[in-house]
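>> received
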Amino acid sequence: GVSGGLKTKEFDELQERLRISESLMTEMSKTWDERLLETERIHQERQMALENMGISVQASGIGVQTDKFYLVNLNADPSMNELLVCYLKKNTRIGRPNTQTP
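>> returned
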């Protein structure tokens, strides 16, 4: 068992709290440049993941490829309009799956 009269559950909880505290201390000791680099890396990973799913997001609006079909978001708020585009794969069907095609 665990020495000092601590129950195993209490000991595990204390270990977890210690691990979280150490993680926070490590995060707090990072320099501004390290945090900036990590943020940029995360942003690039997210952009790549979205692009792999066929989604293009840009701060200035959508960036579309003219040789592909796509869906774009529309919003009543002009600042939120056309910020997301989703490219459709070849032979993408939109609508109910049980409808007949013309």
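>> Strands lie at 55-57, 70-72, 84-87.
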